[in-house]
Amino acid sequence: MGSCCERMGPQKNTYVRVSLPAVCFVWQIAMIILFGVFIRYDEESSATWPEYRDKKNLTDIENDFYFRYPSFQDVHVMIFVGFGFLMTFLKRYCYGGAGFTFLIASFGLQWALLMQGWFHSLDLTTGKISIGVESLINADFCCAGSLIAFGALLGKVSPVQLMVVTLFGVTLFAVEEYIILDLLHCRDAGGSMVIHCFGGYYGLAISWVLYRPNLHQSKRLHGSSYHSDLFAMIGTLFLWMFWPSFNSAITDHGDGQHRAAINTYIALASSVLTSFAISSMAQKKGKLDMVHVQNATLAGAVAMGTAAEFMITPYGSLIVGFCMGIISVFGYLFITPFFEKYLKLQDTCGIHNLHALPGMLGGFIGAIVAAAATEEVYSEQGLINVFDKTGVYADRDQGTQGGFQAAGTCVSIAFGLVGGALVGLILKFPIWGDPADDNCFDDEAYWELPEEDEETIPPVLEYNNHMIQKGQDITESSFSVEQS
What we know:
With about 475 residues, the chain is mainly alpha-helical. The chain is about 65% helix and about 0% strand. A three-stranded mixed beta sheet has the order 1-3-2.
């Protein structure tokens, strides 16, 4: 075996010994200062809770922690374990997939608490941001947008670039979320619009600007292995199991949370069957493609995000999952190759088919279901609760609400595409330590790897159960270890 450099190609662009520590230290110190200036516990997490509890005639069990923390645990697992393992499908980029997910989310959640706090919970009299368990959930949601974008860039950018992607991604997310949820007064419990649609188009726009015409030089590593696909499937299963919590985590206590979990659960199950069906139909021999199973099986939950708390009905949820499984698999079969060939857009994970397109469709599905909502189905109080028809929005009719829901989807697409293009231009500067075209999709560019065994130990055949029936053939064979 030749030297590391001979095997991998040029290493000059991947030196981040100065830039990565500088970014991590400086930005973490900035977080400490900003948290010290702005962040405080809210009333339900402060030591003054007993006084507040008695004043409001509450009990400890009514503390929001007991309603939200189980959902927060599930969402947190999705962000760090689900997304992390889903990114490990490349045969030589498992460290980068899981490790950089860890880095992005750990920085992103800190910046998100500040950005979302400034827009949603800043007390103008004290200048402080109050945070509680719901703030932690929303911060994880915010990180999800940047992690989705990471999927399009997987293996092609440096960790320093990923920090920049996260810095701007969280900032853009907070702004578009404020416009969609506060100014337009849209409902988007599971984030089809603000998380998946934005994150998907944000990552795609960055990848389009950073197009690599000679990426085929790393083609030998742009694929999976048996074990890397198995690791990625672990990520899929974690995401699949916990997605009902993701879509219901910040909905209203009671029926809203209950209904969102049911709708997501049903849509997920439906998308699995259609994903398997279309994946098998697409191959001449009917064999399944693990890429489709890892990704398209989740598309129903993405599309259900906006309408999760609406009265879409259980069979409506099945229809959403059914359609999204088909659309997502067809996306991997036709849209992703089309994008790369004609639009010069290299989408490593196929985030367009799992996040961007289902997120956009989920936003429009939510708009249709909102516009069709009636008092007979929801009840008068139900309409008020589900669509937050209070204050200046008390008289907004459902047709208008549906129009604003559709407008919110367009806002998320615009923020993703325009914001991603601008961030991509920033990342084109040759100062970030990104890998060369023939050095992508390889952990060795940024990670110290354990030495691989040069020798393989011959199996002891008599102890392998699956070889027992072949004993006669082995005895008669002239094969020996020395001859091997």
